[in-house]
Each structure stands twice: as structure tokens, then as C-alpha cells.
Design brief:
Layout (H helix, E strand, L loop, with lengths): L7 H13 L4 H19 L5 E5 L3 H15 L4 E5 L8 H8 L5 E3 L9 E5 L11 H9 L5 E4 L22 E5 L4 H4 L1 H7 L1 E5 L5 H5 L5 E3 L21 E5 L7 H12 L4 E7 L3 H7 L4 E5 L2 H10 L2 E4 L7 H12 L6 E3 L2 H6 L11 E2 L3 H7 L8 H12 L2 E4 L5 E3 L5 E3 L12 H14 L4 H19 L7 H17 L2 H4 L1
Parallel strand pairs: 1-2, 1-4, 2-3, 4-5, 5-6, 6-7, 8-17, 9-10, 9-12, 10-11, 12-13, 13-14, 14-15
Antiparallel strand pairs: 15-16, 16-17
Length: 488
């Protein structure tokens, strides 16, 4: 299974290039319609189906599916927004092969058990209106199968245009997923997503130089310890604590780093917080920080430094942060929370091994001139500008590399929206970097694992629970990746 994601424009280019390579677009349409029919027959018992067809090529796929379902003995009716003679190109040719009656969509909802939404595809750029809008608002999602994307869902953003789109139990798309299939807002409308092979040559897809991916362990290699591993070989992570009364966040980060496999984890603590931190720590070590030099020294000694969770604001803490970032031969830094506020607006280049982990509000403060309507474009620009990894947190976290690669993470749960959850994520990423993972891979892996922890815990989770559920998540990952014999 490919984890590449393509844009609407790339899909159009793939269709054109496939045709130029000797695969006629009508053949692609026939293959697409066949994939839709086969997906329906594989999942549903024989029952009446209404094909809802629009004016373009998305409808052409629907006409093909209608013909093939009918040939397989299914009771099928075709309901079209436009008369058959108004169609053009491949859609007209596909419609001409349908020998049954054609009903024009009007005020009445077709009577059927299943509805195939072949009205508009992912390239729709305007809100639904008229009959299409009424059907989107009235048809129950459990009875809707969508072709490409549910009509009204914008393919590149996952937004429902005008806040109205069809809701589907099953969506069949072609060649690769589009952002709408992966973004949380789109996933909620798509139901099960099937990606069908319609005969496009691999070289045609490769020529698109795809740089957008759905997060998966297939994209990164977890740093399982060798049989001869020892704690010093597994990396040392340091988390910078805030002053008295602002200490818990750094401890969460430090514990997450230790849980994910860092050999050593230390809380770097101001003097007035030493007693409070000492009372809360066991396996995690404690180090006092009195001056900016202490932060610089830690940045030079650790394999990764987490700085920002409840760290502190104002000129003194800006001095500490600057000292850590300017330390000679310093380690990578995971910059979160207060560190992001201290850096905003970001006007400097960072180390390419650094990871910034803003939520949407922090992102706007860091990069106030970047519009976020297109979040993929925004994080790409931000990463290039920062010369560092940018992880934009949210229901679908985006991880961007300065070279333009972007990963969309789709694991997670709304129950992760709780105090301290982001501090744990920062620690997970730091722990992976400390064990030798590259920053981009560590950010992607940390986000995926963080989401899996949230899924496993569900309602009632608090941030302290996340590191504790992690061992079971890692055991499952080890088993799936064939690393179980190496991790015990």
C-alpha cells in the first residue's frame, strides 16, 4: 500500500500523462467504474442502487459502475443532473453504453437502498446548490457510496464547501489518496476509503515527484535497541524545567523521553524548583541550572534538549533560550510552548535538526504573514523559512521538512486535547532523536505513537497516562514490524 498523497492537479496530470503513455482516458474511466462496482458488490448484499450522476467525468465513472452492476444482476437506476445529450468527452461515451432508462434528478429523492454519489469529484470549487445540496442534507450516510470524494468536499483541503457535503459510508478513489481523504474533516465524511488501481503506469505516478505522505511506520524505522545496548548508547535527553510552580510540564516531557527508549533523561531545573522536582522524580535525573551557561552546557552535552514546556517568559528566559540555541556543537532541540512564544515572530534560521511543535495559535504568532487556509502550503513555507522541522499540532498533525516533504498524521483521538498532552509529544520526539533518529522521522514517529496512545486510552485520559500506555503500543509496533525478537 502506498502512503503517497496527491493533489487534485497532480491527479489531472496523471490522467493526461497516462493517456500520453498509451492508456486511453476512457480505459481509465472504465477501470474506475469497475472498481466502484466491485467495491460495492464485495461489501453489500444485492439490493436496489441509485446512481446519482453529475455533468462531468466523475459522473462517467458512475455510468460505468451502473452498467456493470446491472450486468451483474443488481437492480440499478441512473438519476442525472443533466440530460445524457448534455455530456461531453469520455463521460458521454460512458453514458452511451448505458442501455437503461435515465431519470433527471428533480425535487424527489430516488427510491433505493443504496445511493452512489457520482455528482462531483474532488476538483469541485463551489458549494453545492439545488438538488445536489438537498440530497447532501437528506441522504443517510450509511446508504451512500462516494466516487473519488463525497460531493461538496474539496479535494485539496478536506473542507466542505459552504459547510455542506455528502456523507458516505464508503469512498472509492483512484491511484492515490488526496488530502481530503486524510484530513480529519474529510475523513469524517468519507467513511471507509478504498484506493483502486485503474491501470496508471507506475512511472507516470513517479514523475509527479510526490512530496506529501500519510504517516505510517512504513515511512520511518523505529530505533529498536540492539542486543548489546546499554543506557549510554541509547541517548541522553534533557528537558528544561520552569521555575517553582511551573515544573510539571518538563517532567512529563522527560518521562515520555525515557518511556520511548532514551537511555538517560534529565530535568534541568532552576534553583527554586529543585526541591519540588526532586520530590517527583525517580528514574529521571535532576540537574540545577543557575545561569545561561548552564543551558548552553546542557545543549552541548545531551543528544536532544526539550525547551519550552512551562519554561517561562520574559527577558531572562529569552537569555536562557538564546544561550542554548547558540551553544557550540549543540544537540538538536525540540522547541515547544514558551520557547515558541519567545521566538515569535521567528526571524532566524534554526538548526535543520531542530523541531518546532506549535499549535495553530503559536504557528500564527511564529509566522504571522503566512495564511493558513492551505495548511500544507503554510507548513511547507514555515519549515523552509525556519530551516527546521515544523510540526503543526491539531486533529490532523502536519510535519514539514525544509526540503518540502510533508507528512499528515491521522492517528489520534479528541481526548488528546488535554493539558500536558503536547508536553508528552515533545518528549517522545526528543527521546527518538536522542536514540539517533533524524528529526523529520522522529517527529513523524512521535506524532503517530502519541496518536496511538490516545486511541488506546480513549475517554478519561490525562497526560500522565500517555507514557504509561506506550509500552503496549510499542510491543504491537514491534510485532508488526518483525522486531519482536529484538525487544523482548
Amino acid at each position: 500500500m502506498s502512503h503517497e498523497i496527491i493533489s487534485v492537479a497532480q491527479m489531472r496530470a496523471i490522467d493526461a500523462a497516462a493517456s500520453a503513455a498509451g492508456v486511453p482516458t476512457l480505459t481509465l474511466m472504465e477501470n474506475a467504474g469497475r472498481a466502484v462496482a466491485e467495491a460495492i458488490m464485495a461489501r453489500y448484499a444485492l439490493q436496489p442502487v441509485a446512481l446519482l450522476c453529475g455533468p462531468g467525468n466523475n459522473a462517467g465513472d458512475g455510468w460505468v459502475a451502473a452498467r456493470l452492476l446491472h450486468e451483474a444482476g443488481w437492480p440499478v437506476e441512473v438519476h442525472s443532473l443533466v440530460p445524457r445529450e448534455a455530456l461531453h468527452g469520455d463521460a458521454a461515451l460512458a453514458a452511451a453504453r448505458w442501455l437503461g432508462e435515465v431519470h433527471l434528478l428533480s425535487g424527489e429523492t430516488p427510491d433505493a437502498a443504496l445511493y452512489v454519489d457520482a455528482l462531483f469529484g474532488a476538483g469541485l470549487a463551489r458549494p453545492l446548490d439545488g438538488v445536489a445540496k438537498r440530497l447532501a442534507l437528506s441522504l443517510p450516510r450509511t446508504r451512500v457510496i462516494a466516487i473519488d470524494t463525497p460531493s461538496g468536499l474539496e479535494g485539496d483541503t478536506g473542507r466542505a464547501l459552504g459547510d455542506i457535503a455528502f456523507q458516505a459510508a464508503l469512498t472509492i478513489t483512484f491511484v492515490r489518496k488526496k488530502p481530503a481523504h486524510v484530513f480529519a474533516s474529510g475523513r469524517a465524511l468519507c467513511g471507509e476509503v478504498v484506493v483502486a488501481d485503474i491501470g496508471v503506469p507506475d512511472r507516470v505516478v513517479s514523475a509527479q515527484n510526490i512530496s506529501l505522505f500519510e504517516n505510517s511506520p512504513a515511512l520511518w524505522r523505529f530505533p529498536w535497541p540492539r542486543v548489546d545496548a546499554h543506557k549510554h548508547a541509547r541517548g541522553h535527553v534533557i528537558a528544561a524545567s520552569g521555575a517553582h510552580g511551573r515544573t510539571g510540564a518538563a517532567r512529563l516531557s522527560a518521562r515520555a523521553a525515557l518511556r520511548i527508549g532514551a537511555g538517560l533523561s534529565t530535568v534541568l531545573s532552576p534553583s527554586d524548583a529543585m526541591a519540588e522536582n526532586a520530590a517527583q522524580l525517580t528514574a529521571i535525573m535532576l540537574r540545577e541550572a543557575k545561569t545561561a551557561d548552564d543551558y548552553a552546557r546542557s545543549a552541548g552535552e545531551a543528544q536532544c534538549l526539550v525547551i519550552g514546556p512551562a519554561f517561562g517568559l520574559g527577558a531572562l528566559y529569552k537569555t536562557y533560550l538564546d544561550a542554548a540555541l547558540a551553544a557550540p556543537q549543540r544537540c538538536p532541540c525540540v522547541l515547544d510552548a514558551d520557547a515558541l512564544t519567545l521566538l515569535a515572530p521567528l526571524e532566524r534560521k534554526l538548526d535543520p535538526r531542530d523541531v518546532l511543535t506549535p499549535h495553530l495559535g503559536e504557528f500564527k504568532r511564529l509566522f504571522p504573514d503566512l495564511p493558513i487556509v492551505d495548511r500544507i502550503a503554510a507548513v511547507r513555507t514555515a519549515a523552509a523559512r525556519a530551516s527546521a522541522i515544523v510540526l503543526l499540532k491539531g486533529p490532523d498533525t502536519l510535519i514539514a521538512h525544509p526540503d518540502g516533504r510533508v507528512v499528515i498524521n491521522s492517528t489520534g483521538s479528541p481526548h488528546l486535547a488535554t493539558a500536558g498532552s503536547g508536553d508528552v509529544l515533545a518528549g517522545l520526539i526528543a527521546g527518538l532523536i536522542g536514540q539517533g533518529m533524524g528529526a523529520f522521522a522522529a517527529a513523524a514517529a512521535g506524532a503517530w505513537l502519541h496518536g496511538k496512545c490516545g486511541e488506546a486510552l480513549g475517554p478519561g485520559l490525562i497526560a500522565e497516562d500517555l507514557p504509561e500506555i506506550l509500552p503496549s503500543i510499542l510491543k504491537a509496533l514491534a510485532k508488526d514490524s518483525g522486531a519482536g525478537d529484538r525487544v523482548g
